[in-house]
Write a structure and sequence with these properties.
The chain contains 14 helices and 20 strands. By secondary structure, it is of the alpha+beta class. α8 packs across α9 and α13 crosses α14. The relative contact order is 0.08.
Amino acid sequence: METHNIEWKESWRDEYLQWICGFANAQGGRLEIGRNNKGTIVGLTDTKRLLEELPNKIRTTMGIVADIKLCHKDGHEYITIDIIAHPNAISYRGKYYLRSGSTNQELTGFALDELLLRKYGRTWDATPVPHVKVNDFYNDAFDVFRKKAVSSKRLTHEDVSVSNEQLLKALKLTEGEYILKAALMLFHQDPEQWCFGSHVKIGYFENDADLLYQDEIFGSLIGIADRVLDAIYVKYFKGLIRYEGIQRIDDYPISRDVLREAVLNAVIHKDYSTGNPIHIKIYADKLVIYNDCQIPLSIKPESLLEGVGSRPHNPLIAGAFFSSGQIEAWGRGIEKMKKGCIADNLPEPEFRILPTTFSICFHIRNNTTHKYVSAEGDFGIIETQKKIIALMMANSKVTLGQIAVDVVVSKRKVESIISDLKSKGLIERVGARKNGRWIVKSSI
């Protein structure tokens, strides 16, 4: 079947030289002439002419050499053209193409810049920027970095007790007299001057069509996760208050640590060349984060969920976040988000990974109803019991985990309340654990 490195064509057309260019700029590949789009060999009648012309056309239009072979099968002749990946960018008639998935794309603008940078050993965030000096920066972001780096013990007081200019050099964010783009994104008070779309958009949605209110978070990246989380937990989430003994606990729809990990993942791996901000969409029962990205050509998108390790699209930005203590260097973010949700009795997050888009969907506790419990622990218990009984009446096979999510209390608390309801003769559990069901004998 056709894949990211195999393409079938029934007959030859000179426009297919673009496909050869695309393979050369990607991971290499094979173009087979004489197969239809189902992979069936239909054969060629002009193989002799093609074998003579194709090597010259490829060499004169792109300056590369391809391995061209005549093959025979089922009485048919067909031609295979094998192209290796080239370390330098290859153009065809002044235009650049790239094989992406099973398509061939002409590169322009930022996408072309990205290809040229990558081919010559640079990343987007390592681009030098002229006419910018350290004196153009405010101190705020540098102060945030110093505080986080020392408190996390990634750096010492002596390490950060240097000038802002020396700090940028230590983080490899300068090149000669130039400041690199990563430094502007991380520490400048207005990175939008150099990268439109470097902010985060947050919106609360009643449904997919109805946006109720929104915010945009701008500023230096090194502290943007804190600003985003502050906005969400103050304006968008409701803290559900409960007490364990005399200790007051505010339960939010999702753990702050889990959400921080997701926001940092988006900030660090985002493809900033597209001009699109990070989007965070919040609903009553879910939260979705998505950002543009560039999955390395050598990695299949689905393998990112299998622990292949960290391959940051912006390594200099990632390095600064590591030095500040906000992330680890081992690419464990996805696993930490999964475990954090499970520990909080929430479903595992859903990941959707495409070659140019990354999104995470968290199923959160319902974010529309407050529940208050007094220091004695009595007020609100009756309402919780009523909700649990209603859930059992609606679904006799409802699980403890599902109940915990719906009534917004811990699984341990659900077990305690159910035990009390059983002792009062209000409910009964019958059947084996997996196939058992609830019987409601009396409502409250």
